[in-house]
Design goal:
Blueprint lengths: L1 H9 L7 E3 L24 E3 L2 E2 L1 H12 L11 E3 L4 H18 L1 H21 L5
Antiparallel strand pairs: 1-4, 2-3
Helix pairs in contact: 3-4
Length: about 130
Amino acid sequence: MREVALVKEQYPAAQLTLADFSGFGVYNCERIPAAAERGAATRWYWEAGHFKKALGDIVLQRVMRQNTLADGRFGMALDGATLAANRDRIAAERVACAAAQPELFLSSRQLFAARRSRFKESGVQGE
């Protein structure tokens, strides 16, 4: 956010917005096919770090249209005044996603527990 503020200070006419599309919203909280579902695919993501073109098109559309980031649907403009609201949004989405996709969170807990056990067994300090 500081970098965006610096650019706006240096170039007052710049139309620059920092947007956050993370969280657990309608696009982010997608069921992950089980390992046995080899032919199944997700709609929005190739895997955890890369979304598909269809979602990229939605992101671009939301960024390029005036005021769409203020509607609370997907993506949120970030600045000093919206940080707390953004954290609250993510927390609320997480609760809703956990209720809709409990297996998604269960598998994450299992992965972390397994990793923690391996650290303890190897004598590595910390997590």
